[in-house]
Hints:
Layout: H1 3-16, H2 41-49, E1 59-60, H3 71-87, H4 92-106, E2 113-116, H5 119-129, E3 137-141, H6 146-159, E4 162-166, H7 173-183, E5 188-194, H8 206-216, E6 219-223, H9 235-238, E7 242-246, E8 258-262, E9 280-284, E10 288-291, H10 305-321, H11 323-341, E11 347-349, E12 361-366, H12 371-382, E13 384-385, E14 387-389, E15 396-400, H13 407-421
Parallel strand pairs: 1-13, 3-4, 3-5, 5-6, 6-7
Antiparallel strand pairs: 2-8, 7-8, 9-10, 11-12, 12-15, 14-15
Amino acid sequence: MNTPRRRFLETMSRGALGLAALPLPPGADRPPWPPPPGLTDEDFWRAVRATYPLTRERTYLNTGGLGPAPYPVLDAVQRTMWAQQTRSETGHRLIEEARAPVARFLGADPDEIAFMRNATEGNATIASGLSLRPGDEVLFETHAHPGGAIPWLSRQKHAGIRVRTFEPDPTSAEANLQRIADALTPRTRVLQVSHVTAPTGIRLPVPAIARLAQERGLWFHVDGAQSAGMLRVDLHALGCDSYATSGHKWMGGPHGTGLLYVRRDRLDAVMPTETGAYSDAAYTLPDHLDYRPSAQRFEPGTRDAASVVGLAEAVRFLEAIGMERAEARGQALAYHLREHLEQIPGVTILTPEDPALSGSILTYRTDRVPYDALFTFLLNEYGLRCRVVTEQGLDALRVSTHIFNLLDDGLRVAEATRAALGAPH
Length: 425
C-alpha cells in the first residue's frame, strides 16, 4: 500500500473508534424480510435498505472496500455464536452444510471451495502454492489491489520469480486481451487479473482471457474481490483455474470471511502452504500424508462457524433478491451518478461507460480540488462515505453503489461535488 493511502486509512481508523459506542438499532424496528409483494421498484429497494443497520447519519458508498451485512446475516451469526458457545462446540457440521449453498452461488462444486478470511488469503494461497522456479514470470495488471499484488511481490523477493504488469485499457475488452497477449513471454507461467479492478472498476473479459491462458498453458487466477456479489458469477463458465474473493464486500457477509476456488482437476498443482488438522485425508507418523481430495485441504484448522454460517445466509439474501436484479440495480445506480457528474465542469470520470466493461463502481476526479480534500468535504459536509484512489497516481474518488443504496444517494454525491468545486447548478 502506498504511503498516502496508508496515512489516510490510519486517520480514518482513529476517527472511527467512536463508532463502537453507537447503539444497535432495536429489533422491534426491523422490517420484514423478504419485502411484501406489489411494491414499486424504488419502494422495493427502500425495503432492502431498511434491512441494513447502517446509521442514518451518513450514506455509505464504499462496498468496494467493506460491505455491510443485513439483519438476516447478523442474526444468523449471533444465533450460531451463542449456540456454539453455550455448548462449546466447533460447528464443523455447520461449516460443511454452508459449503454447498456458497458453491452454488458461485457456479462451482462444493469440493472446489475453501473458506478463507478474505480474498488476500486466497490470492496468497495460490501465489505461494504454485510450483515456480527462479526466473519464472507472473503477469497481472497495474491496477491490482495490494491484496492481489503483494503475495506475488513477496514471492519475487524471496524466491526469485519475476513480476510483470500490463496497463488495463478502459475502452475495449479486445484491447485488454491484446495487451495481455503482447505482455506474455516464454517465461510467463502465471496470469492473474482482477475480475473488476479496484481503483476504477474496469471489468476485464475473463472468459476470453481464460481461453488465451489455456492456449498458452498458463495458470490463470482471478482476484474476484470486486465481482462476487456485484456481478452474477459462474466460475465454471469463467474458465479460470482459481478464483479468490472476500465475503465481506459485495456479498454482504461477516467481516473476516472469504473464499478460494480451485478447479477440481487442478487441486494437486497448488501446494497447501498452511496445513493442519483438516487438510488430510489420512496420515501416519512419521512419513505418510494424503491431502483431502477437495479444496478443504487449504483450510488448516478450526474456523469460526458463526461467520461461515453468516456467509451462507448472505448468499441466501442475495438469491432472494436475484443476482441478475442486484447486478442491474448496482449498474443503474452507477450510471445514474455518471449522468449527473458528467454535467459538472471540471469532472473527469475514469470508469468505462460501456456496461460490458463496468459494474457498480464509478471513479472520478477533478483538478480543481485535491482528491483528499474532496473526500473530506463529501464526508464532513454531506455525510457521504466514499473512498480515495491514490493507486498509480490516479488521485481520484471512488463511489460504490450496491443494493442498499438509493437513487437519491447519487444525486447527493453530484450535489456535494458541485458544492466542493463551486460549480453552478
